[in-house]
Write a structure and sequence with these properties.
The chain is built from 21 helices and five strands. The protein has about 500 residues and is mainly α. The chain folds into three domains: about 140 residues, HUPs (Rossmann fold, 3-Layer(aba) Sandwich), CATH 3.40.50; about 140 residues, Serine Threonine Protein Phosphatase 5, Tetratricopeptide repeat (Alpha Horseshoe), CATH 1.25.40; about 170 residues, DNA Cyclobutane Dipyrimidine Photolyase, subunit A, domain 3 (Orthogonal Bundle), CATH 1.10.579. It has a five-stranded parallel β-sheet with strand order 3-2-1-4-5, with helices on both faces. β4, α5 and β5 form a beta-alpha-beta unit. α13 packs across α14. Bound molecules: flavin-adenine dinucleotide (FAD). Flavin-adenine dinucleotide (FAD) binds next to α9, α11, α14 and α16.
């Protein structure tokens, strides 16, 4: 008897291993076919026209990461015995068509927290069900499901501290359940020995050619030229290698695992002290359970070696970052209005100055403040930016240049390889002080930040090679003599004056 066919719809879970929706499908039947839909509504979207610069909603760097990850994923499906169908169009129309062509009884996928995706999924599910097909949708992209935690009053969490404590307790409970197949956190292996569909059934479907070599899939062109500089590597295999290098060190005893010194290393943009797994977690070439298992294995190794306190503390700080990721995702799930604007209503009335010229200078790394410009050049050239610098440039745009944080949010989405609505919106609202963070007003002094976290100006010199000759002191302070500038711009603003100006404007909206 032929086993029933299922479709598995990949979205932000571009891997075969530890993919909970796919594993559920493969437990039910060996006849599983993968689908990925390139949706022009997403790919061709633009930031609102009110934001200068005609910004694309999807960064070229993300298209590169997506394309390369899909290429590897298609290979993995073939190796597992079946195939991945890549199509371009509206999922609401395409998925019922594919399901009908293959005679699929069930279409499975993993749920998302973003408002657009949730609405789309509802429409797709309705269309499939109208055709008599079953839909199976569960959580995969978080260790702790968004509905699982609530405050004592039964509300979703709005403050990270108590969320983290509750999240940590829940993670411990889940760990005790063992395999992810039974609700635990132990990652699942990739399915094997799948049964392919009859290729003639695909004849009338607009399946895109799985281009050999480096050519892009049709319908997925990009002009990203920074792939060699980007620390995030596409594909499931590279994510595993990055995780291993971060948690256990490079093979052959080359470098100590950065995870063990993360507490300090995470703040130094001139060093590779973080995992650079953000794009892998965003696109799901790595699962959160795999990331968690990496840190738990590091804990065991440290404990077996006599357990240095600092190393264990560092591991915990990294786990707290994984919890920040989940905090922002559950916040977006429960408060979708976060995507529309400031969480704190008084910020809707903030009198932004919104100078398009200043915004353009900030985006291009031409503000005359070296730490800001170095960070923006890192973003523009590599598609990624260090977290410390994200906080510093965000504060600078909002509190020194007095530009609406939503402009910065859109500018980041237009360039970041890991651009993710929940994390990016959370980071910008945190930096703008318009979000859930209980601290009323946070202003970073860029010179102080540079002196503290890039004391030898290594990061600044790396990304601003035209300033290599300038003294470290001047690079950090930004006070570079005109003759030394050699074409590098004079500072756009004075931090002290702008800080006073911002505070005066803030006083007008303070409740
Ligand atoms: C203004 C601003 C915008 C940001 N935009 C994004 C974004 O679009 N996408 C994104 O993934 N992160 C974003 N972040 C969070 C953070 O900067 C990146 O996750 C981090 O720099 C990625 O580097 P890494 O993988 O080496 O992180 P690590 O330090 O190794 O941390 C491990 C993982 O934890 C998660 N994480 C770490 N810090 C945060 C955080 N503050 N918020 C949410 N998740 C976190 C990421 O998935 C990261 O890969 C933003 C932060 C700010 C201040």
């Amino acid at each position: 008897m032929t086993p029933p066919r299922w479709l598995f719809w990949h979205r932000r879970d571009l891997r075969l291993a530890d993919n909970l929706g796919l594993a559920a499908a493969a437990r039910a039947t060996a006849a599983v076919t993968g689908v990925f839909v390139l949706d022009p509504t997403i790919l061709d979207a633009q930031a609102p026209a009110t934001i200068p610069g005609a910004l694309p909603a999807v960064a070229p760097a993300r298209l590169w990461f997506l394309q390369e990850s899909l290429r590897e994923l298609a290979e993995s499906w073939r190796a597992a015995g079946s195939r991945l169908l890549i199509l371009r169009g509206d999922p609401e129309q395409l998925l019922p068509r594919v399901a009908a062509a293959l005679g699929a009884e069930v279409v499975a996928w993993n749920r998302d927290v973003e408002p657009f995706a949730r609405e789309r999924d509802r429409r797709v599910a309705r269309a499939l069900q109208a055709d008599g097909r079953k839909v199976l949708a569960g959580w995969d992209q978080l260790l702790v499901e968004p509905e699982a935690l609530a405050t004592g009053a039964g509300d979703p969490y709005r403050v990270y501290g108590p969320y983290w404590r509750s999240w940590r307790r829940r993670v411990e409970q889940l760990e005790a359940l063992g395999s992810a197949a039974s609700g635990g956190l132990d990652p699942l292996p990739a399915p094997r020995s799948l049964i392919d569909c009859d290729p003639t059934a695909l004849a009338d479907l607009p399946v895109l050619g799985q281009a050999p070599g480096k050519a892009p899939f049709r319908g997925l062109q990009h002009d990203f030229s920074g792939s060699d500089l980007c620390p995030c590597r596409p594909g499931e295999a590279a994510a595993q290698q990055q995780l291993a290098a971060f948690c256990t060190g490079l093979e052959g005893g080359g470098r100590r695992a950065p995870l063990l010194t993360y507490d300090e290393g995470r703040n130094l943009p001139g060093e590779a002290g973080t995992s650079a797994l953000s794009a892998a977690l965003k696109f799901g070439t790595l699962s959160p359970r795999q990331a968690w298992t990496g840190s738990q294995q590091a804990r065991q190794t440290v404990a077996a070696l006599g357990g240095a306190e600092e190393a264990l503390a560092s591991i915990q700080v990294w786990e707290q970052e994984l919890a920040w990721r989940e905090f922002y995702q559950q916040a977006l799930f429960h408060f979708p209005e976060l995507a529309e604007g400031p969480y704190r209503p008084q910020w809707r009335a903030f009198p932004w100055e919104n100078s398009p010229e200043r915004f353009a200078a900030w985006r291009e790394g031409l503000t005359g403040m070296p730490i800001i410009d170095a960070a923006m050049r890192q973003l523009n050239e590599s598609g990624w930016m260090h977290n410390r610098c994200r906080m510093v440039v965000a504060s600078f745009l909002v509190k020194d240049l007095i530009c609406d944080w939503r402009w910065g949010e859109a500018a980041f989405m237009a360039r970041l390889v890991d651009g993710d609505l929940a994390a990016n919106n959370g980071g910008w609202q945190w930096s703008a002080s318009s979000g859930m963070d209980p601290k009323p007003l946070r202003i970073f002094n860029p010179a102080t930040q540079a002196a503290k976290f890039d004391p030898e100006a290594r990061y600044i010199r790396h990304w601003l090679p035209e300033l290599k000759h300038v003294s470290t002191r001047d690079l950090l302070s930004g006070e570079i003599a005109p003759l030394e500038r050699r074409g590098y711009p004079a500072p756009l603003v004075n931090h002290k004056l702008q800080q006073a100006r911002f505070k005066a404007l803030y006083a007008t909206i303070k409740a």
